[in-house]
């Protein structure tokens, strides 16, 4: 909400020494936070004065343009008292007009410097200003486009133009919380300003208004809950072409609204002044009585913005005998709007149910100044005053005649009443606030207060529908006392148990990967159908069964993800696109797997959920397993003086999972497999025992292209919960023997389809307890081993904790390992 300082001072008699900084600080302390401070004078420096045009000679130019060579009286502002010679290309002024002159040395908005320069054969010393050149609305003071022409009585040549144009009037922009609708008006802001400085306040809605009579326009309200009060007033003989006065146009512009026409401007001005939205109908376009009701199925209305809207049965509408003429409290209809031929105006000032206004605005995606106020709650007791103010301005400025008819239907809702212990503000705030102070401050904000013993009862003001709770009254008292007086006391931190076992394990996962050179990424858990297509998932893949959000942040990503890969690959592509070619990312986060029961009950607000309701809520929560995913591309080891680097590959992705499993004390097995989105021949299943917990390997080339990542990018994703279930809170450290190691190497020939992991597992099992480590150091395929075969060479290391192994013991252990591999995998020892 924007509020000119001069307009605020019109309603509150602030001390003369109160600066705009003092005012904004105090209002911020009262809850009206300063958003910005706009001072037009800050963008203009140098002499800006009034001038009277003495002569004007039109001079056609060769380029077809006609310029005016003028002499302008600027008084003593130029230091000589002599007329100022100025070249001007505009033509909407004449000799004798009072204009605004910018003299040499001034700087206009945008850094435009004014100097004396020769142009069109003359020395032009200054500029006759238009509204736009000064940052004012194009229709500016004077009511016309182009050069500003002021009334003759405005001032004398040489007078300072800043005050005349309102350029010295600071505009304060406030951030208004949704519960403080009263502050969306000068009436409300001025009231808080008076409260902050204990200054006299003049309520613009405090005016004598005529009572209802039988000459008023007929109005019927069918839904009193939706529209408790409807006031109608009429004027005749309105002059639709009458100009909006400069002061009104300037104030509307300062408040962020555009001057449209006098009739519309008056209704907008009164809305800004009082906070009460007003609507004006062209009375000649109305047929029969006005009726307020709920819309029926299939009804449509063309609103003022030219949009045809299909209405809901929950929408409040205004009708006459011809049909719909407005969407109550939100936007009027196109058929009955005021136009440049309107001479009879019916003024509507109605109070509308805030909840209905909010729902209608969201349903139709309408954002209007009227709707913004109605949906937050407006003072229901000023409808008559606001309508009377509009009528008075139309009579004064538009030459209209009040026809004397007054229609008032309904009565305002009763004011709320709250009772609190008198010491509650002191107990909650920690500030010494006695009963008298609490009562006085509540009276100052508009409450009617009675104190009975240790209880205080406040009848809240009609403009504060947000005051419904005892603690709302506490807040009102404390904001007047001053939030800066509330002591800052840190709460005592209760003794905790530290991290849970699961949290410790998750932290171990992150530290392990970070220590291995991987960077953690945090991505949004939102995906779209296109992501599944990019991953190459078949139509029946269970990962395509997802939960769809009702109100997604991005309509192209309305689904909750079932895999971390789309987000991680997008993060990888984003890094590579920013010239970060060597990237290794990991993420551990929740994924969402529907159970088919995701339908939560709609609960009331009158109490906490019952045990049965909690059970239903928990049943509706989808399965949310924790996953771990890694993605790597580029160099895993960089080149340098130390040697040649190494490109990242599938082994790095699977190796990261192995590192995590090792840190958790879990044994995982890896074997060849096929699964999207991996390359069919370069994909591995990762198992704990017989349970597949994930996959890893090299991405399919089509997936790399779809996500914009380099070819042969490697990824892995596993069910982290499955790893954590088997994890050891304390992983035993390695044992060391001081006795020498015995080394044996074996080369086994197996079918090409046999996984190396299966051979390794068989060797490990057969070797027994003396085996310290086993390592695959070579894979060979070729004519020496035969077609469809491969040779796997393993380094076996044996060691005993209590003795030096004999050659016979080592040989026996090796032969047992080879025999086990032969029995389980068909391996044949290579000669």
Care to describe what's here?
With 831 residues, this protein is of the alpha+beta class. It has 6 domains: 2-39 and 170-197, Phenylalanyl-tRNA Synthetase, Chain B, domain 1; 42-165, OB fold (Dihydrolipoamide Acetyltransferase, E2P); 219-409, 3-Layer(bba) Sandwich (Phenylalanyl-tRNA Synthetase, Chain B, domain 3); 417-485, Phenylalanyl-tRNA Synthetase, Chain B, domain 1, CATH 3.30.56.10; 501-726, Bira Bifunctional Protein, Domain 2 (BirA Bifunctional Protein, domain 2); 742-829, Ferrodoxin-fold anticodon-binding domain (Alpha-Beta Plaits). The protein is built from 21 helices and 43 strands. A 7-stranded mixed beta sheet has the order 28-32-33-39-38-37-36, sandwiched between helices. Strands 3, 4, 5, 6, 11 and 12 form a 6-stranded antiparallel beta sheet that branches. Strands 14-17-20-21-22 form a 5-stranded mixed beta sheet. Strand 7 and strand 8 form a beta hairpin. The longest helix has 19 residues, at 807-825. The N and C termini lie far apart (89 Å). Mean pLDDT is 92; it is low at 139-144.
Question: What order do the helices and strands come in, and which of them pair?
Answer:
Blueprint (H helix, E strand, L loop, with lengths): L1 E3 H7 L8 H10 L3 E6 L9 E13 L5 E8 L10 E5 L9 E5 L4 E2 L3 E2 L2 E4 L2 E4 L1 E2 L20 E2 L10 H5 L5 E5 L10 H12 L21 E3 L7 E8 L9 H9 L7 H13 L4 E4 L7 E5 L5 E3 L5 E3 L5 E5 L2 E5 L3 E2 L12 E7 L2 H11 L4 H6 L8 H16 L2 E9 L7 E5 L2 H6 L5 H10 L3 E5 L2 E5 L10 H12 L19 H15 L3 E2 L5 E2 L1 H7 L11 E2 L10 E2 L4 H13 L5 E8 L20 H10 L5 E8 L1 E3 L8 E2 L2 H15 L4 E4 L5 E11 L2 E9 L1 H7 L6 E6 H7 L15 E10 L4 H12 L3 E10 L8 E10 L8 H19 L2 E2 L2
Parallel strand pairs: 14-17, 28-32
Antiparallel strand pairs: 1-13, 2-13, 3-4, 3-6, 4-5, 6-11, 6-12, 7-8, 9-10, 15-23, 15-24, 16-23, 17-20, 18-19, 20-21, 21-22, 25-27, 26-27, 29-31, 30-31, 32-33, 33-39, 34-35, 36-37, 37-38, 38-39, 40-42, 40-43, 41-42
Helix pairs in contact: 1-4, 5-6, 6-9, 11-12, 13-17, 20-21
């Amino acid at each position: 909400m924007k509020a000119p300082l001069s307009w605020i001072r019109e309603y509150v008699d602030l001390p003369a020494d109160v600066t705009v900084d003092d005012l904004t600080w105090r209002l911020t302390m009262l809850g009206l936070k300063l958003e910005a401070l706009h001072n037009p004078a800050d963008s203009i420096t140098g002499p800006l004065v009034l001038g009277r045009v003495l002569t004007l000679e039109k001079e056609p130019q060769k380029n077809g343009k006609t310029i005016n060579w003028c002499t302008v009286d600027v008084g003593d502002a130029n230091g000589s008292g002599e007329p100022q010679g100025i070249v001007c290309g505009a033509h909407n002024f004449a000799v004798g007009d009072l204009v605004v002159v910018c003299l040499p040395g001034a700087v206009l908005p945008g850094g435009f410097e004014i100097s004396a320069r020769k142009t069109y054969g003359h020395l032009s010393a200054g500029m006759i200003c238009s509204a736009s050149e000064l940052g004012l609305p194009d229709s500016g003071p004077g009511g016309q486009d182009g050069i500003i022409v002021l009334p003759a009585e405005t001032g004398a040549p040489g007078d300072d133009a800043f005050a005349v144009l309102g350029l010295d009037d600071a505009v304060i922009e406030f951030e208004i919380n949704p519960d403080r609708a009263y502050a969306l008006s000068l009436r409300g802001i001025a009231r808080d300003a008076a409260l902050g400085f204990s200054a006299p306040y003049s309520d613009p809605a405090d005016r004598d208004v005529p009572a209802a009579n039988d000459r008023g326009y007929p109005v019927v309200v069918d839904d009193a809950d939706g529209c408790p009060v409807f006031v109608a007033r009429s004027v005749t003989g309105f002059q639709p072409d009458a100009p909006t006065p400069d002061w009104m146009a300037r104030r509307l512009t300062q408040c962020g609204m555009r001057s449209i026409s006098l009739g519309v401007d008056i209704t907008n001005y009164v809305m800004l002044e009082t906070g009460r939205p007003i609507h004006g109908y062209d009375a000649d376009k109305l047929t029969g009585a006005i009726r307020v009701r709920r819309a029926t199925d299939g009804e449509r209305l063309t609103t003022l913005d030219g949009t045809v809207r299909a209405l809901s049965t929950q929408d409040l509408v205004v009708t006459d005998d011809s049909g719909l003429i407005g969407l109550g409290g939100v936007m009027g209809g196109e058929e009955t709007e005021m136009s440049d031929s309107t001479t009879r105006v019916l003024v509507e000032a109605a109070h509308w149910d805030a909840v209905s206004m909010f729902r209608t605005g969201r349903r139709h995606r309408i954002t209007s100044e009227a709707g913004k106020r109605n949906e937050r709650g407006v003072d229901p007791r000023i409808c008559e005053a606001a309508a009377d103010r509009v009528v008075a301005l139309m009579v004064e400025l538009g030459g209209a005649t009040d026809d004397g008819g007054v229609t008032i239907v309904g009565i305002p809702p009763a004011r709320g009443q709250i009772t609190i212990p008198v010491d509650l503000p002191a107990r909650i705030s920690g500030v010494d606030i006695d009963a008298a102070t609490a009562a006085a401050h509540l009276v100052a904000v508009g409450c009617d207060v009675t104190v009975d013993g240790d209880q205080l009862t406040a009848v809240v003001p009609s403009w504060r529908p947000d005051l419904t709770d005892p603690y709302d009254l506490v807040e009102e008292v404390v904001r007047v006392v001053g939030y800066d007086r509330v002591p800052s006391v840190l709460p005592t931190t209760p003794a905790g148990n530290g991290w849970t076992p699961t949290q410790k394990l998750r932290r171990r996962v992150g530290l392990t990967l970070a220590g291995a050179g991987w960077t953690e990424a945090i991505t949004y858990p939102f995906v779209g159908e296109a992501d599944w297509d990019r991953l190459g998932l078949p139509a029946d893949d269970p990962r395509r069964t997802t939960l769809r959000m009702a109100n997604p942040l991005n309509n192209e990503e309305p689904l909750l993800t079932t895999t971390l890969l789309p987000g991680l690959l997008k993060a990888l592509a984003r890094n590579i696109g920013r010239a970060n070619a060597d990237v290794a990312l990991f993420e551990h986060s929740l994924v969402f797997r529907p159970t088919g029961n995701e339908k939560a009950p709609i609960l009331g607000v009158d109490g906490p959920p019952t045990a049965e309701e909690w059970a239903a809520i928990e049943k509706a929560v989808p399965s949310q397993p924790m996953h771990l995913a890694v993605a790597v591309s580029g160099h895993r080891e960089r080149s340098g003086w130390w040697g040649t680097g190494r490109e990242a590959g599938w082994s790095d992705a699977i190796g990261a999972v192995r590192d995590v499993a090792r840190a958790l004390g879990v044994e995982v097995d890896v074997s060849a497999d096929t699964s999207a989105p991996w390359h069919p021949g370069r994909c591995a299943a990762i198992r704990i025992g017989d349970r597949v917990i994930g996959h890893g390997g090299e991405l399919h080339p089509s997936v790399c292209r779809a996500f914009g990542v380099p070819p042969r990018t490697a990824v892995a994703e596993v069910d982290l919960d499955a790893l954590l279930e088997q994890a050891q809170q304390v992983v035993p450290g390695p044992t060391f023997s001081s006795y020498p190691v015995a080394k044996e190497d074996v080369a086994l020939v197996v079918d090409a389809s046999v996984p190396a992991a299966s051979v390794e597992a068989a060797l490990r099992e057969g070797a027994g307890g003396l085996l310290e480590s086993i390592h695959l150091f070579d894979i060979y395929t070729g004519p020496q081993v035969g077609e469809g075969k491969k040779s796997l060479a393993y380094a076996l290391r044996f060691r005993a904790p209590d003795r030096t192994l004999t050659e016979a013991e080592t040989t026996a252990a090796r032969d047992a390992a080879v025999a086990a591999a032969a029995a389980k995998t068909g391996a044949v020892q290579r000669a």
